Structures are given as structure tokens and as C-alpha cells.
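pasting for ref. prot 1 ->
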Amino acid sequence: MRAVSVLLLVLVAIGVGVWLLGGNDDFDPNAGGSGSGGAAMKPAKDGGTRDGTAAPRPPAGGQNGVAPDAVGDGKPGARAVPTRTAVEPTAPEDLADRPTACLHVVDHLHGKPVAGAIVRRMKGGAEIGFTDEQGYVDLPLAEREQLAVIADRFLMRMAATRLGSTRAEPQPVQLVRDRWSVFHRIELRRARGGGVVSEAFVTVHPAQRGKTATNRTPAEPDPVIQRARSEDERLTNFFAGSDEAIRLQDGDTLRLTAGVAHDLDFATADGLADRRTIPAADNGRVIRIALAMGRFVHGQVRGDKGRPLDGAEITQQGGDPLALRCTTAADGRFSFGPLPNGQLTLLVRHREHEPRAFGPIATDAKPVITLRELPKSTLRGRVRRRPDLTPLQGATVSWSANAEGVMPITAVSGADGTFQLATTGDRAGRLLVSAPGCIALAELVAPGAPFENYDLLPSAMNERLEKRMTAVLAGLVVDSASRPASGVTVRWVPTSAARGVPVTGRRTISGNTLPLPLALATDSNGAFVIETDRFGPGRIEVPNGGAAASVATTAVAGKRQDGIRLKTR
């Protein structure tokens, strides 16, 4: 069996805000984008460690993903299917188009290069490079930023990159071998027959939630080791996410925090499950996991007046290996699983009712869960991203009453994009909806207004172009001596008439249309880039610039046209 490691980050995730890199090499714990930029790592074939988020998973819960009948009259409720899937990463738009920095990663003990180490961004958690056989990695960074360097069986290190470093003069990173964690080899077997299970998903929590190991060994006299251990602890906190699962193959190794007992929940996409507690005293051993058919919670969700609730969303508090998420059927019934034998707490949400944590209950229970209806003054809605209308999680929604000195009421959209605000008064207030990478939307909305969708436009031109929302016309303006003409007004004159704004009956202040001017001035190099949603034939012109200062062209949705050349008199 192969001896590769799964780097499991088991500490509780910290909240993460906007990251600003200071003038030194110290780590900012507020770095990054989301609060769980990658809670767990799994081994790469080249010996490094990679994000262990599961690849797309088949529906769980028995044949064809249909769970057993729900409680009551035997009619099946909405099936519980795992919906979180890994998306193949795309090249970030904020990276440079060429290498701008170089790291040289070596083993601190003897100075030998470390091959296959991962370099991971703190902003968003994306992997942007792997060290070669000599330990070098070239990085296409547009600006100086904080990075994490991760390698199998080493402590994680931080690197506030130095732009301009090269292979001739690289930025050194010294990795320290991990002598302080506990490593367990995991064997996956079927409870019946003992056959090998090739793959499972696992979530890990400290057996006493919130407990972490501190001062595990005396301080090291070597300052490099001291700093490496400190950085590893910080990065573990930063990347950790208690509800994240990793993909684990038979024979893989788990890295666990020493001195802390851990609860491990295992599950497979075809419905097997098991739960195991690893004592704090265990010092690394082979652990055989016996996976049996999982259990299901069958139940019903009702309102406080007894009405069955359709579309209530149910998840498990603390997460589960398959990231299960199900919604209730029209009669309010659901089946949630597969789950290992034991107890759990369900998180139940419905857009018209207060969310509720229900439990702990047994995994074969048949509960009836009652939700309290929200007050009528509650303002509810869903934030989506245009043009795909996908729900936006983490959008900031604030409502301000039209009264001096009244603080705005703020909420954050959930995983399904929904939000709720306990608005007051009887007059319309200003609702502002914003999210990273989007144009803010502002509307006048009355307290207790009906549920609405609030759709945000992407703020990045490249994304709008990719989504065929706009076209781009780019080129150069020169003078009569063929020199670049800066500060010259260039405008797009489409043949078609402007489209009217659809009448929705809503009082939108801003953000429902793209702010795309038809005219702009050339830059210092005489260049211009005009983005437009006025498609079709037309012309690019310099007003009063002469015959050579007008070019006929066509704006095509999703297409960028370069090389347009205009000449002024």
C-alpha cells in the first residue's frame, strides 16, 4: 500500500475578511476571501498535498439516489442528494501573464530541494504552482501577496512574495519536517465480507468541539523551527473548515493534531457509512474502518400553524462527509442520509420561517419539525448573479430607513442566496445589495415587501464578455504624423436604437443596467477600449476628425475586436 499523506486541518475555521498585505513578511490572519478556503488537503500523485474537496459525487441514499420512504403514509419525500461538487479551477484573472517571482523551497534540516510542494494563494485558496525537482517554482503574480507553501510530511510555511525574484536570485523558503503531528494509516473495508472499499469521504472534528492542542512540546531553540510551527498553526486555522470533507482512498494516511481526540465520520457515494473516535493518546497506528449501509432520518417539516412546508432545506450541523442537502416535498416530508449510526443535529431553513437547529436526534428518528413563521415586517429576498441567475452566497444586504440617525439593518445571503431583514416602520427604505465582483444594486423597498430576486451584474469586463453580455471594440488613434494621439474622444455609434429599460414596477435607484458609455478618451498611448451592449452594425469615430477617423464595424456579443485604427487630421 502506498505511504502518502492526507493533510487534515482539524481546527475551527476563522472568519475571513479582506486581506491587505503589509510591508513585512508576517502573516495577516484576515487574509483571503471565504472563511473556508480549503479545510482539508489530500495527496497529489507527485507527493505534494492538494485540496481534498470531493469531485462530483453520485446521488446518495440507495439505488438511483432515492432514499427510503419518509415517515407517515409511505410516500417518498424529497431525496437527499449531495450537491457540493468540486469545480475545476480556472486561471484567475488577477494573475500576470508571465513569471514575476520565484521561490526556492528546501528542507531546513539539510538544505536539499523539496519537489512537488504546492504554492497556494491566501486570496481564494487557489493553487498556482508546484516546485520542480530542484525545488524552484515560478509564479505569475500581478502584485505582492501572501502565499502558503505546502508539502507532504512538512509543516506549512508562509511566503510574502518578493516581486522580481528569479531563479538566479530566488526567494528562499525553508520547510521543517513535521515531528509534532500524529499520522494514522486508514484501511477502508466493508462491514459485511471485509471487502476493500477503494474510496470514501471523511469529515473530522475534535471530539470536544473548540478544543485544540497548545504547547505540545517545549519551545525550539532554532528560530526557523519556531517560526515554522507558528506559521503551520496559523495556516491550519486559516484553511480549516469544520464542515469540509476530504476524499480518502484505502491505505492513505491522516495527519491529526496531537493530544486531541477526534471524531471521524466516513461515507461513500453508494451509501456506506461509519463513525469512529480516535483517542488523544493514540500515537499513530493502522485504523480499519468497517463501512455498513447508512441510516436515514425520515421526517416532516411544518409551519407553526401545522401547514406542511414545501421547499425547506435540510443540512447537518457541523457538516457530513457527503455534504448532504435535501429539500422537503410538497407534503413537507424528507429523507436525509446516508448517515453513520449515532446522533446528529439538523439545520432546517425555509424562506418564510425562522431557521432552526433541531436535535440531537438518532440517525433513524422520524421527527416532525415545526418552524416559526417570520414576522410580516420581515423583508426577504434572494441575491443572484446575472446573467446565469445563480444564487450568490455571502452578499451583503443592508436596508436604511428614510430617517436621520437610524442605523442601517444588515444581513448576509446564505448558501441559496436568500436573506431576511427585520425591517421596521411603514415607509420605503433604501436597500443596497453588494457582493465581490458585482455591481451594487440599490432599490427603494418597503418593510415587509413580497419576496423578490435581486440580481447583480458582474463588475469585470472579461466576465461580461465571456457571458456574451457585451462586446469590446479596441484600437488606436494616431495623428497625421502617425504618432499616438492621447486624450482624443472616441465614440461608438451603433445603427440600432437604444433598448428601453424593462418596466418592472420596482423602484430601482442604480445597478440594474451596465454603466457603459458610448464615448471615451484615448490613453497616453493613443489606445481605446470601448465595451458596449449595443450590438449590431455601426461605426467607431473621432468626432470632427475627418474621413480617416471613422471606421464601420459590427459589435458582436461575446467578441473582442482589436486592431481598429483611426487617424485624425
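and prot 2 ->
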Amino acid sequence: MHFNTLFNPSSIAIIGASTRPGSVSNDVIRNLHTQGYKGHIYPINPKGEPILGMTTYTSMAEIGKPVDLAVIIIPAPKVPQALREVGQAGTHAVVVISAGFKEAGPEGAVLESELQTVAKEYGITLIGPNCLGIINPHSNLNISFAKVPARTGNVAFVSQSGALCASVLDYAEEYGIGFSKFASVGNKACIDEVEFLEYLAHDEQTKVILLYIESLNGADRFISQVRTLTSGANRKPIIALKAGRTAAGASASASHTGALAGNDTAYDALFKQAGVIRVSTVEELFVYAAAFAHNGELKGNRIAIVTNAGGPGVLVADEVASNDLTLAVFNQDTQRILASSLPPAANMKNPVDVLGDAQSDRYETALNAIIADPDVDGIITILTPQSMTDVAQIAITVSNARAKGGKPLIASFMGAKSIYEGDAILQRHNVANMLFPESAAHAMAALYQFYNQTRATDLHTPTLNNVRKSEVEGILQRAKAEGRTFLPEAEALAVLDAYGLPLLKSTHIHTVAEAHALAESVNYPVALKIISKDIVHKTDVGGVKLHVAPHDIPASYEAMLQVVSQKAPHAHLDGVLAMEMAPKDGFEFVIGVNKDPALGHMVMVGLGGVFVEVLKDVAFRLAPLTAQDVDEMLREVKASKLLEGVRGMDPLDRAALTECLLRISQLVTDFPEIQELDINPILVLPKEQGVRVLDGRIIIANNA
């Protein structure tokens, strides 16, 4: 990959350069020419007319010397040939701003495929097509048609939307956020977010990474790269805004970039699993970006609040308590300093109210004492502009306190015109300032979330060797040969048994004689379940009967065949599965798998039984799972408290349930043709007694 050349080129060719002001290519050249780029610019246009006083060339070949980077801004049908000429000239970094590719339909998709072929042939690192461009403020590089230049800073922004990029640059000015790298990836024909993350992991100018995502492909690549970024000594937070959360949004996303959108539940699981902080709005994206850009790690959840207004202090206290944070309890030294220095009417406890007439001296006293308190991990400072408030001087005081203290500090200077000067001072001193005080609490919670989730200790995906993979291959191959996608319960249970999931004793009954033989050989009640390749929901056609006594097995067998034949006359019946009744102790959970078309297998666990679709007490992660993934899933589920034992009930076998989830993860990883898998219920027995699979259903893709 030629990312360093992309962001630090010594020469740039603009293919499709235009003399017309206001055109995309003219704006790109103007941005380069007027914003301080020091390298050589080679406009390319068949007419050869000078642009902004620069010599124009008719082709790459006419330049006659190597060029680091080419920017292509011509009609889509001409782009593949232009890219080939770029490759022949020896240029290995290209930005294709032109639109009209897969986002435009089938013909555009063919053109995009040609771009991929040419880029691979010549070893070209290609950004786009259908993008805004790229920016590196540290080298005065602005290869885009964005109107607002980017401020230099430590935040990298990678976006699938070009138009959003232009707005982001404008918003960033208001929030005092500067950028290390800025990229619009467009259709991601060759380079996607994962390659960018790999580059940014080693970019010393980048501290925080922002992503705007409409679609991703391959959860395993994304998770692996994000975990590399968010672990270790130089870990970097990744904050993502994912569009297309609803069906309508997903449809709009697909038409925007021509990409296949995945299930939003899968993305939610992906971000949790990878360690990405997900936001829901552009405002949240900037609030969190400012907090991370201007603060170090928040290593505890004890937060102090200093305010000159009681109401906002209470609002922030509420948000602190609602976001896994807690109000700090000051030590005796801090309490003594506050009591001796603040007016008697001030509130000395947390939140500390320095009163509405407070000037910078009260803020200084309170902040210095609180920052020195070892029982405080982070500080939120609130200011409301009263008639006597010296906003600028208090902003200087807050900036100095943050610089000396070393602890995360987020300000909320509330208002607009009245706090303009103070906001500017805070920005100059790299203090994160939020317009609304609740945002300060949310941002502080995000800092703590990042610290917690990046202390992962077990990121190893276990490999279970005691599985009979060949048996599963045989079952699936037979189903495919018969043109089937649905595995009846007997086959599904055989697949689960091959991967070590504990089953109840069962027998396949084909005839009345076999039913009589079973009745004479067992001394416990059984459940009878119809076996048919054509019946997915057995209970709907009378295909399930529970608590059948041994002597009733033959009659129940015949009665079931008769009822099912009447209700599903076209179904081929392959007998009945007789299964021992489950133990009475234990609790019903559910394990499920659904394959997302873009991200892969999504594994689910939660409260099982007949209420699973009503209560929806479930959690998701993407396969392959680690033991830590499973632990996080189980902690998310409200019913997981049952595993610990409640109201006198013995603890359940959490370890056995964990192992089952890891085995299911390996099963679907080994067999990507599995589209859906459902174990409902799986009975979790008391601790050290294991689990039992009570029912199983598997659907496969016949063309896999």
C-alpha cells in the first residue's frame, strides 16, 4: 500500500483539469494552489490551456518525469483507460473523484470492476471512486473540492460520504477540532476502512479516529484491525457513526454507494466486539472527538463537577449516574480547602456550586483542590454567563488547571454569544468545551468506556479439536445433493452432536414395530417429534407431543402420523423422533445464528423458550467468538442473573453454556454455508451438571 505517498506526495497530476471556475477539478487545483501545498502540480487537459497560471499538459506521458500521485476527475467511462495510463507512467497512488460507478447501476458496476483490475495489475493504491478526496493538513495537502480548509490536529476522519466530509470540516471549526488525516473513501473499489485503519495505527500524528460508515465487508478483518488499534501502549480510540440503521436508511445507503448494507443488529454487535465507540448523531461524533482529542485516559469512573449554577450541576449529576459513572466523594483535605475558601452559601459537596457571582479565583481554588484529590478521576466544569461573570478569565483558569492537573477535564460553557471569547480561549488551550452540559457527561462516559473495553486480556479464538467435522460434511453434502436447504431436527441434532453439544437420548422410529420395541425398552416418558424435510415448524401441524408414557408410545406414534398427514398432506414424513424428556431443574436459554450477507455469522444467546421473540432478552456477537466475547454477551442478557442463582435458586452451569457458544461459533466458521441455526431451548442445568440441547434447526445455502 502506498499510503505515505497518498498523504505526502511531492508531485500531483490532476487528470481532467478545468479552466472553468466552480468546477470540481478547478476547485481541487485551486485548493492545492492556494492552501500552501509545496510540491509540483501538473494539470492535465487535452486542450492544454493554462490554469491558475500553471502549465497544462495533454497527458501523463507529456509530463516526462515521475509523478507521485494522480487525481482523476473525468467522466466515468474514460476513467479505466486513464488509470491504465497512470499505471504505465509509474504512478502508484491515485484518487478517483469521478462518480458514475456502481452507485449508478449495473453499467457503472462494470466500470468499477475494470478499475479494480487495472489497479491490481499496476499495483496502484486507489481511493474512490465517487469520493470527495483526501486532505493532510500537516503537509498543506487538500486534494478535495471542500470549501473549508482543515485545521491541523490529531483526529483522523474516514468517511464513506463525501458531502458529509465537507460539513464535517465546517463543524470542526466550531468544536476546535484539528485533523491529522482526512479521507473520503466513496465506493471503496480497492481501499476500504480496514486498510485505512492499518495505516492510521502507525501514524504518529493521529490520536483519535472517526469513521462514517454505511457498509462494511468482513467482520473478522475489521475486528482484528480495530483490536490492534485499541490495545497496547499507543492505543487509539475509534468512534463510528453508522448510517442505515433502519430499512429505509439501509436502502438509501445502498443507492448512495452501491454497497450491500447489513443488519444493524450485526453492526451493533460488531462495534461492541471490536471495541469501537458507536454514536448515533453527527453532534455526538464531534462531542466525543473533542473529548478524546484533548484528554488522556479516564482510568476510573469517579467524576467531580464544578459549577456556578445549581440546575446544570444537577442535570450533569443525573447523566453521570445514568452512564456507568459515579459522583466522586472528596477526601478530607479537599473538603477542608473548599470549606475554608468558598463562601458559606456555596455547596462544598459534589457537585461543587461556587455560586452565580463566582469569579476566576473561586474556580481556581475548587479546581486545584479537586484535581489534587486522589479520589477524583475526571472533572466537568460548568459555567453559565451571569452579568458579573468574567468568562474569558475563567476560561484561562480552567485551561491552566487542566494543564497542571493531568486528569481528564471537560468544560461546558453554556450559551452562545456570551461565551464566545471563553470558548475561543478553551480551544486555543486544547480544552474540550461542550455547548450543553449533558454532553460533557456523555463524553466523559465514552472516555471511561474506552479505557474499560481496551483492557481485554483474552482475545484468543479457541480451536476445539474434539469435533467430527467429516460427519457434518457428509450431512450437508447429502442435503445439497437433494436440493434441500432445511435440515430436519434429526439431521440438525446429528450436526450439533458432531460438534460436542450435549443432547438428550433419542431414537428414530420408522415403523409401528419400532415404536413397540421402544416402549418395551425404556422406563421414562419421552417427547415425540415428527421428522420431515418439508416441515419447519412441527407444532403448527401437530408434530410434537410431550410426556408420552412408555406404554403410550405406539398409539401416540400412529396418531401423530395421521394428524400430520391431514394438516400437511404434501409433506414427506420420515418417521418420528422419540427423545427423553428433559430434566425438570435448570432454565431454558436460546442459542441462535443468522448469517448477515455483509458481515458474516451473527451468534445470539439469551432467554429461551416460548417467550424469546416477545421479551427479546438476547445479545449478539459475530463469529468467530473468543471466551471474552461470550462473557460479554452473557453479561448483557438480563436473564444471565439466573446463571448466578437468584431467589434461592442454585447457580446454573455458566461454563457449560459458554463452551456451547464457542462450539457453535466454530461450527459456523468451519461451515460458512450455514445460514441459520436455532437451538431453542437449550436447558442450562445447575452448576457442574452441564446443559442439554432440547431442539435444533439448521438452514443452509444450497449454492455454497
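The radius of gyration is 31 Å.
The CA atoms of residues 541 and 564 lie 6 Å apart.
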